[in-house]
Amino acid sequence: MSRDLSDKSQRHPEKAHKPDTPILRKPEWIRVKAPTSKGYRATRKVLKDNDLTTVCAEAGCPNVGECWAQGHATMMIMGEICTRGCSFCNIATGRPDALDVFEPGRVADAVEKLGLKHVVITSVDRDDLKDGGAEHIAQTIRAIRHRSPGSTIEVLTPDFLKCGPEALEIVVKAKPDVFNHNLETVPGLYPSVRPGARYFHSLRLLQRVKELDPMMFTKSGIMVGLGEDKQGVQQVMDDMRAADVDFLTIGQYLQPTPKHHEVKRFVTPEEFKAYETMAYGKGFLMVSATPLTRSSYHAGDDFARLRGARLAKARGAQG
């Protein structure tokens, strides 16, 4: 197959939803300025010098300018090609290359050079690997711990759908501070939005993390604007709480190209605030629900608040 990945709009012919559907005009609360700061350029140079991929760039995150200006970046490991073909995602689908055994060290070097206090590590899905890349994720965690022992680590993992239970155990034993796996959307939209995944498998994955390590923070998120309704979002919240998920993120879905799943509507900031209030009422320790919320947006600050919320809850239970 061709390896020219320069035009992302041509990388997902299988994801076509309605190719001629125009992308809705973004409302004012979604628009962000193009990145131009010195901090942005400095972060980009460190990532380039270490030959690292970020989900910030690959997925076209709207917050890349703000985050990179502050020296924050979400490292995407195990290559730039995913074995899944989700209709919302702008990452290339195809046959990935072999794993780069030197990548964990390069990630650790970048974390040290950027002086990151909190680092987020994500990856493409690697259904071609027996363990789904679990050992590679664990090696990356260990490499960061060795080079930057004071940094906290958050992993945003695949679902390990085609692996045995030992894959998840490998990652949990490496002791990330936060284990994140996104449900992405309501279960009724999985066939069109996330066809290679299974909603209840992902939910069970999050539940098993708590069974393996009750003290590990768990996190999950969904996008809105894909065609879900409020009852569906509320049901996902209830399912997450049943799985003892600590931290919920909700953000606006943005359509990367006309070939991807279209934006059904733009959810207003007031609706996001209502979702936040509802989620806290259901018992989440931490909630981030805004139009621009993404899994790793303000992740370091949110982690500090998450720890504080757990301590406050523990004190309340004692008193």
Low-confidence stretches: 1-20, 55-59
Arrangement of strands in the largest sheet: 1-2-5-6-7-8-9-10
**CATH architecture annotation:** Alpha-Beta Barrel
Which percent bin holds the helix content?
Answer: 25-40%
Mean pLDDT: 84
Structural class: alpha/beta
H-E string: HEHHEEEHEHEHEHHEHEHEH
The total of helices stands at 11
Oligomer: single chain
CATH C-level name:
Alpha Beta
Number of strands: 10
- The Rg value, from CA coordinates, equals 19 Å
Q: Terminal Cα separation, in Å? A: 63 Å
Shape: globular
> According to CATH, what is the topology?
TIM Barrel
> CATH homologous superfamily - what is it?
Aldolase class I
Q: What share of residues are in beta strands?
A: 5-15%
Largest beta-sheet details:
8 strands, mixed
* Domains, number: 1
Structure report:
With 319 residues, this protein is of the alpha/beta class. It has a single domain (10-318), classed as Aldolase class I (TIM Barrel). The protein has helices at 38-49, 55-58, 64-69, 103-114, 134-147, 166-173, 190-193, 199-212, 230-242, 269-281, 299-318, and strands at residues 53-54, 74-77, 81-82, 92-93, 118-123, 152-156, 178-180, 217-224, 247-252, 286-289. The strands form 2 sheets. An 8-stranded mixed β-sheet has the order 1-2-5-6-7-8-9-10, with helices on both faces. A two-stranded parallel sheet has the order 3-4. Helix 4 runs parallel beside helix 5 (134-147) and helix 5 packs parallel to helix 6. It is globular and about 45 Å long. The model is unreliable at 1-20 and 55-59 (pLDDT under 50).
